[in-house]
Amino acid sequence: MKYTISGDNLQFVNIEFQPGEMIYSEAGSMVYMSGNVRLETRASGGLWKGVKRMAMGESFFITNFYADGGTALVGFAGEAPGKIMAIDLRGGKNWIVQKTGFICAEQAVDLDIAFQKKLGAALFGGEGLILQSLRGDGTVFINGCGDFIEYDLQPGQLMKVSTAHAVAWEASVAYDIQSLGIKSAMFGGEGLFVTTFRGPGKIVLQSMTLAGLANSLVPYLPQKN
What we know:
With 225 residues, this protein is mainly beta. The chain contains four helices and 19 strands.
C-alpha cells in the first residue's frame, strides 16, 4: 500500500493498493475509486463487532475495498473541515482515538471499542464513555476538526487539554479529567473541566471541535420569524 494526504483543511487520503491487499472503512467515507476497485459491505467480525461499532458512533457495517487486475486507487475524506493523519501501528503499538476519528485502515488493523477508565472522564471528557481502540500490524488513518498538533510526552510529563480537543493518544498515556474550579469556570471562559494526559507517549490535539464549529455557525443561520 502507498498513500498520500492532499489538501489543506479539507483533506483527502489517497491510497494505492495491489491485488491481495484490502482496505476497509466506515460505510460512507469513500469519495472516489478507480474502476478496478471491488466493494464488499459487511458486518465484519459478526453481530457483536457490528454492535460495538454502533456504540462507537460508527456504522453497523464496514466497507471492504479490493483491487482487481492491477494497482487500484481509492480516496477517503472526513465529515468536517480538518486534518487527516496516518498512524503506523506496527511493532505492537496501541492507540486510543475519539469515537468519530476513524476513517480507514489496512486489513491487519483491528478496530475495537475502548471504555473510559474513570467515571469522571466518561461524564465530563466531552467524548462520552466510549472511545476507539486501534492495534495491529498496519496503518490506520484518522481525522479531526481544524489543525493538528502532536506532542511526545516524557515519563511523568503532564499536559492539560481543553475538553474534547484530544483526538488520539497512545495507550501508554494516562488519561483523566481535572476540575479547574468554579471561579475559573464562571469567569475564565474555559469551562469547569480539562482533560489531563500523563506520559510517556504521544498525544494528538485538534484546534477546533465539531461542536464548536457548529455553535460558531448558529448566528449566521436563517431564523424563523
